[in-house]
Amino acid sequence: MSVSGTSAAVRAEGAAPERRARLIALIQSRGAIGVLLLATIVASLRFPFFPTVANFENIGTAASFLGLVAIGQTFVIILGGFDLSVGSLIGLGSVLAAYALPYGWWAALLVPALAGGAVGLVDGLLIARAGMAPFIVTLAALLGVRGIALVLAKNSLVIATPGVFGLIANGQILGIDNLIWIVFIGFAIAAIVLNRTRYGVAVFAIGGNEEAARMLGVPVARIKVLTYVVSGTLAGLSGALLAAHLSSGISTAGQGEELKSIAAAVIGGVLLTGGVGTMAGALSGVLLLGLIENVIDQIGNLSSYYQNLASGVFLLIAVLIQTVLTRRRR
Amino acid sequence: MSTGLMARTGHDSPMALLRAQSVYVAFAALIVIDLIFTPGFRNVFVIRNLLFEAAPVILVTLGQSLAIGTRGIDLSVGSTMGLAAAVMALALPGGSWLAVAAGVGAGLVVGMINGGLIAALDINPLISSLALLVAARGTAEALLDGSRVSLPTGGLFDALGIGAVWIVPTVAIIALAIAGLVAFLVRTTMFGRYVLFIGANKAAAMIAGIKVRRTLLLVYAASGVLAGLAGVFAAARLGASDPNYIGVNYELDAIAAAVIGGTPLSGGRISILGGVFGVLLLQVLGASFIMNDINFSYAQILKAVFIVGALYLQRAGG
Amino acid sequence: MSDIILETRAVSKRFGAVQALSDVSFALRAGEVHGLAGENGAGKSTLIKILTGFYQPDEGEIILSGTAVRLDSPRAAQRQGISAVYQEINLIPERSVAENLFLGNEPRRFGVLIDRARMERSAAELLARYDLAIDPRARLGALGLGLQQMVSIARGVRLGARVAILDEPSSALTGTEVETLYRVVDRLKADGIAILFVSHRLSESYRLCDRLTVLRDGRVVASEAVADLPRAALIGAMLGRNAEAIHGNRPARTPREGVAAFEASGLRWRNRVRDVSFAVRPGEVVGLAGLLGSGRTETMKASFGAETKEGGAIRVGGSSVPSPTPGRSIAAGLAFLSEDRRAEGIFPKLSVAENLTATALPRIARFGFVSRRKQAAMVAEFTKVLGIKTAGPNAPITSLSGGNQQKVLLARCLATAPRAIMLDDPTRGIDVGAKAEVHEAINRLVEQGLGVLVTSSEMEELMALADRLIVLTEGAVTGATSTDGLEVQDVLDMLAQPHEAVAHP
Prior knowledge:
The complex is a heterotrimer. Chain A has 14 helices and four strands. By secondary structure, chain A is mostly helical. Chain A has one domain (17-329): ABC transporter involved in vitamin B12 uptake, BtuC (Orthogonal Bundle), CATH 1.10.3470. The longest helix of chain A has 32 residues, at 15-46. The two termini of chain A are 29 Å apart. Chain B is mostly helical. Chain B has a single domain (6-317), classed as ABC transporter involved in vitamin B12 uptake, BtuC, CATH 1.10.3470. Chain B is built from 14 helices and four strands. Chain B has helices at 2-11, 14-37, 44-69, 77-90, 96-119, 125-143, 155-161, 170-188, 190-200, 202-207, 212-238, 250-260, 272-291, 296-317; strands at residues 149-150, 164-165, 168-169, 240-241. In chain B, helix 5 (96-119) runs antiparallel to helix 6 and helix 12 packs across helix 13. By secondary structure, chain C is of the alpha/beta class. Helix content of chain C is 33%, strand content 25%. In chain C, strands 6-9-10-3-11-12 form a six-stranded mixed beta sheet, sandwiched between helices. A six-stranded mixed beta sheet of chain C has the order 18-21-22-15-23-24, with helices on both faces. The longest helix of chain C has 16 residues, at 175-190. The model of chain C is unreliable at 242-246 and 500-505 (pLDDT under 50). The A-B interface holds A 82, 126, 130-133, 135-137, 139-144, 146-148, 150-151, 154, 259, 262-263, 272-273, 303-313, 315-316, 319-320, 323-324 and B 73, 75, 117, 121, 123-124, 126-128, 130-139, 141-142, 144-146, 243, 249, 251-252, 255, 265, 295, 297-301, 303-305, 307-308, 311-312, 315. Chain B: It is found in: Cell membrane. Chain B: Pfam families: BPD_transp_2.
């Protein structure tokens, strides 16, 4: 590559701010992993109950339901929207799984996933085709889907003989809980989809500059609809796994998970303004919230309700830091 | 000038006019239907109960209308209600008046934080208020350990929780009085104008030398205070402060009521009266389901559909 | 001719009452850099939007390589090989250069996974062809604006562009970036790509272009090879006499002595306003003469505090305004009318009365309450003084014609009883009658001792309004003259002088 004097000069001119911008971008995208490692070390030194294999498995299993939802939420936030319906979809998914189980374990997975996808499709169409605001549409879906779940099952439905279905959520492969496998493989696939497929690149493009993406030939509406479908499907699936894990379909399950999943993604460096984020960051956010929950649970003298406070405060701090960092970078 | 006149008629086309008045028409129609078909709807207790439920929603709708008028949004109002109720419960030893003041004060604090983030740091209101939705609810739960704290009976809390003048609850009178005050402020004060200017064209408002930041701070602070008072009312009605229950999903009702009432999400226009009727419409709708012995969950589903439908129609009206 | 790639034949376009383009015919040849010149509202952007598929012409046709085409969407235009680069980059700043170059048709492995290595290699090759030292993996937003534009050009070329439209590509570029742009343009030329170049910098147009087409009032007024179109002729064509314009005679007046109504010294903002100083006396109209992009708007905005100035001092009526904001400037007695009525002027959805009184609310309010009576009086007064034609004070502002909207905004400025007022192209896009009324109003106000700083896209208008001119070129004051006995041609000559003296910082 021939480098002429002038262009070299151009490059040198922009070098210093560029280096700072790179550093800031690194903090934004990888900061959560650092915080997670730090928190793990501190917790391990401070609490003897913490650094055991069993406890780590506990954290992983407990975080897996949020994790699946956070994958979809991350796609949606990078796209420039957010999906408030996922919490209710966990509840609906868990109830539908209980109803569908008599037809086979596969039906208990498929039906919730399809239902979640259908809700996502409606959300996506209203947002992408009718141009309605994502928060209004998905907030209404939050309300409506919870209503459907409650109509289907006022009380929790006990699953009589979970069988294979129960094994999916509670079994182990190579000594590691299936749920942990599922969520880690899920994140790995999501990371590949996000970074290595045209769909993923289009999601980034739309979130980064929707008008430009349209001009550059990205099928904006289609990608948007698809993304809400993915988010809904994963939420339904998460509900099904929860039902398998607890051997019951609970219509009130998943309340507040929509906010936690947003918090996890944002803490993990996914910008609420869209166009920026990584799956590894979102996973760190999920695990960080799981870690806090685990510690608060085990300290004993702290109310479990501090978990929500912690995720709220973390979210607020993350939003503040991200806003300031993003401004600095410009 | 003829072109001006023609343009004016074009602006207020019959469809647009109908849309602008639709909340009153829909409300009247629903009342008529209920009077005919719903058993017991004529009962004064029903109406009183309905107004009890409506009072806090009216309050948060007022704040929401101001925020939407600036082309913003306040998603934190429901959680702020919960936090206000929790703070009030903690302040009970200081007497009921102090407790109420503390609850409203908590609302003010949340509103100031929200307004500060929006005005000073230029954070999108959707994002800042969403973060506060999570944080305020979490704080409320943590303060009370997630448990319900009963309020003392008698005195101030009874006055707010069950007090009524014939069929009109005290809290409804207060809420309507505040609604009147807010409507008056929007109509007649510089502050009201500034709110509309910011919503109609923020860049032009800046150039016109309008104090955009201060106005935004005031708007969200007001929304916080109103949500605080709404939390106090809701807790008084319940007879307890329940951080998991009070104010949950109220932000959606408030947004829906404001928009159905003729305050478009695109800002620059506020209809307080319409918002009040929007609240009443949603409340009566919910009550109609319950009184016809339909599972409340169905009401919730239909409410969601109704909200999306109404917003879909309003969308074209801008 | 065979080497004509893109041609418009008798293209016309109307928006409501405004004839944006009439009968525009011009041709773009392979390997040619064709400059498009014209002032605000001349029709340049309408023409570009027609060529890039945003608008459809009402009449006439577009011929691409000898066949008539319909460009019914921006994507259709791109598919036909017309690629446009705007000053505001239409790419994704948060993504890498390579991704931006290949978005939508990334090379893939196994039919699914993007082959990043191959994509980055191809990107590097493409950038090297244009001699651009850009790392394909760099985040686009981390590059300077100039290099981002080059990436945008490279994307167009990669997609097989035959025509590249560069819309004000250099107005935000630094010196070295401009040099890079020149090199890339030369390379595009050598590749046989036709380039339509829109710029407000004359020296640049002369340096780069082979031909120049000048639009005024939606018509082609000149289309010549650069050698046949000297600077003075070009500027004359751009700003020259408007057949429709009616400009009354400027009344003889003597500005009042004493303290200046409004004064700026050493004003600086980015590289758009460079050490600008001027003073406007009471009862005087000073014209800020300069082409579009000369910094005339930026000078006003920095004076007013709509942009934060980076240096210099502002005094209004003798007292200093230390760090001006719009609010402080208005309080000090300065008013400003933006050239962009829609984006920075009117409050749509609100009434004439609400729009008119926006800045003057403290004058008609008591303890924060707006007095209906005083508001009505203020609206009635200005409606009468400025001859605002409206269905009534409560009519929505959007129901008024452009000229009457502008009068409402002028009234908004005057309602604060300022000592001085800055009018940025106050008659832009309004009809002739309203124009004359605005002029009349300005003259009356000046009689009463107001100091006025004004710009215009029409030299004739500026000459008719101003007592004195300050000539602004590329952000710096390059001359000052009284308009007494001055001919339009003299000013055009002043503007046409090459300004080597103006140093780029």
